[in-house]
Design brief:
By secondary structure, the chain is mostly helical. About 75% of the residues lie in helices and about 0% in strands. Strand 1 and strand 2 form a beta hairpin.
């Protein structure tokens, strides 16, 4: 198997990145819908941090041909280790119960964070090219404020619908007073950093380099909508439309941050309105 050069095995480099994104997205969909990832919150954030943040960032070093052979092999090994860990967690209840413990999940989180940062530093990855930057703040900030003004009435209306009343708040802790609500929404904030980076950072900007913006934006929006299956039907369709819009906003802004703030605001507002029904 050729690691350096134009191919990985029988797949050229440009195709390899696209295939990797498709495979990882499929894994994410299957993993999330076949596992109880909501309890406890620290466990949920750990799993999503690995799938949506650590693996994509490390794959940048693994898939780009300008990296050294040693670093590519190291990156590939780390990705395989993470995937094996996730698969074993999903199939072995005993292992899952061990990882859920605070004395285990926190050290593991620190370990994988340090490994990811080390690989990025050694690989000299330009994370700004994947939307990890403030971007064009003067462009996206006014749009963000306008969005909040326009969307709050719609979110309030949707929160009154029976289907949304059954779904939100998604974390039961949000119903347990002000402190519980704050903890739940801050947890969602961390989650949406992972989530929005994956779709409106890693996926969008990686594919855009190879397919152009319109195809890349369509792919990330469809994948994003699929991740909403099981939620109210209206939300699934709005996720597709909204995914296209925030994808464009992220692309024009050169940052996934506006998409993050929009998604987090929608979630927090929906939870709040559902609780205050």
């Amino acid at each position: 198997m050729r690691i350096l050069g134009e191919k990985i095995g029988f797949v050229d480099r440009k195709t390899a990145t696209t295939l990797f994104i498709i495979i990882l997205s499929t894994f994410l969909l299957l993993f999330l819908y076949h596992n109880d990832v909501w309890r406890p919150i620290r466990y949920w954030l750990f799993l999503n941090g690995l799938i949506l943040f650590a693996i994509p960032l490390i794959s940048i070093v693994f898939l780009e041909r300008k990296r050294s052979l040693v670093l590519q092999v190291l990156s590939g090994i780390v990705i395989v280790i993470i995937l094996l860990l996730l698969i074993n967690i999903s199939t072995m209840r005993h292992l899952s119960s061990i990882v859920k413990r605070s004395q285990v999940v926190y050290p593991l989180s620190v370990l994988f964070t340090l490994i990811t940062v080390l690989i990025l530093v050694l690989g000299k990855v330009n994370i700004r090219s994947y939307g990890i930057a403030l971007g064009k703040v003067k462009f996206w900030l006014p749009i963000l404020l306008l969005f909040f003004v326009c969307m709050v009435p719609l979110i309030f209306w949707a929160s009154r619908l029976p289907a949304f009343q059954k779904t939100y708040p998604m974390i039961p802790l949000a119903k347990k007073g002000i402190q519980g609500f704050i903890v739940a929404e801050l947890s969602f904030g961390i989650f949406f950093i992972f989530w929005e980076f994956f779709f409106r950072g890693y996926m969008l900007f990686s594919l855009e380099k190879r397919t152009g913006f319109f195809i890349a934006n369509g792919i990330q929006a469809v994948a994003f909508a699929f991740m909403h299956l099981g939620k109210p039907e209206l939300e699934v369709y709005s996720a597709l439309v909204g995914g296209l819009i925030v994808g464009w906003l992220a692309w024009r802004s050169k940052s996934f941050l506006p998409a993050f703030f929009i998604h987090w605001a929608i979630q927090s507002s929906m939870d709040l309105f559902a609780i205050l029904k």
